[in-house]
């Protein structure tokens, strides 16, 4: 892949002798830090910073998805930055093409950035899982704290529903498992929080985008094309 907002491979180093071919070293372009370290630092961030980071993430993700690739592990530590605030999506170790049929049940996405359909063990999922992760990252940029720091799957779902509200039956159509639907219905019911109160420093446009990313039903989540 060749895009301004996707980390580029500079070289591949192989062992000099074929019989010693146990490892391959991939050389990437040098970046200064990542978004995780920036958010944990004392570096002040303006709204312009936040908008520029989000723009670059969505721009890079639109390109990745256009190649029919799911990143599947978007999180702040995989968003690399340089001193010019240029951002590149990195770590494609869990990425898979959408045409592959044997990857759906593999490990995917660090729990805090995992979409509801993954938490509920859906056997099929789409690029919407990456959009959910970007929403989690956007919320983290605004507050400088993880949006859904769940301790386990149950706690993770509770934190999600406490913010975006408990899903109604029409929002559970993507769940093919009756057991999964029954489980979601058995959870405590929460109303949707007012995003303006939760994210007081966020611009109106960013808040609207966040609400359209953090949608329980993946089929109703905004797409990368529209978000970018």
TrEMBL record:
Residue ranges of coiled coil: none
A Pfam family annotated for this UniProt entry: Pkinase
Transmembrane intervals: none
Superkingdom of the source species: Eukaryota
InterPro entries attached to this UniProt entry: Kinase-like_dom_sf (IPR011009), MAPK (IPR050117), Prot_kinase_dom (IPR000719), Tyr_kinase_AS (IPR008266), Tyr_kinase_cat_dom (IPR020635)
Annotated SMART domains: TyrKc
Domain Protein kinase: 1-228
GO molecular function: ATP binding; protein serine/threonine kinase activity; protein tyrosine kinase activity
Keywords: ATP-binding, Kinase, Nucleotide-binding, Serine/threonine-protein kinase, Transferase
Name by which UniProt lists this protein: Protein kinase domain-containing protein
């Amino acid at each position: 892949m060749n895009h301004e907002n996707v980390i580029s491979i500079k070289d591949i180093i192989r062992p000099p002798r074929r019989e010693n071919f146990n490892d391959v070293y991939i050389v990437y372009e040098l970046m200064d830090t990542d978004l995780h370290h920036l958010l944990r630092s004392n570096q002040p961030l303006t709204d312009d910073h936040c908008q520029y980071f989000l723009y670059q993430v969505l721009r890079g993700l639109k390109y990745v998805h256009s190649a029919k690739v799911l990143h599947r592990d978007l999180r702040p530590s995989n968003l690399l930055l340089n001193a010019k605030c240029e951002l590149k999506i990195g770590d494609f170790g869990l990425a898979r093409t959408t045409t592959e049929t044997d990857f759906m049940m593999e490990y995917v996405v660090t729990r805090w950035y995992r979409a509801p359909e993954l938490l509920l063990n859906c056997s099929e999922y789409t690029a919407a899982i990456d959009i959910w992760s970007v929403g989690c990252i956007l919320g983290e940029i605004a507050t400088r704290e993880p949006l859904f720091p769940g301790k386990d799957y149950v706690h993770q779902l509770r934190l999600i529903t406490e913010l975006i509200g408990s899903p109604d039956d029409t929002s559970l159509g993507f769940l093919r498992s009756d057991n999964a639907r029954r489980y979601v219905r058995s959870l405590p019911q929460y109303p949707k929080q007012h995003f303006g109160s939760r994210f007081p420093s966020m611009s109106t446009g960013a808040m609207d985008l966040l609400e359209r990313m953090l949608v329980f039903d993946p089929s109703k989540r905004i797409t990368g094309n529209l978000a970018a």
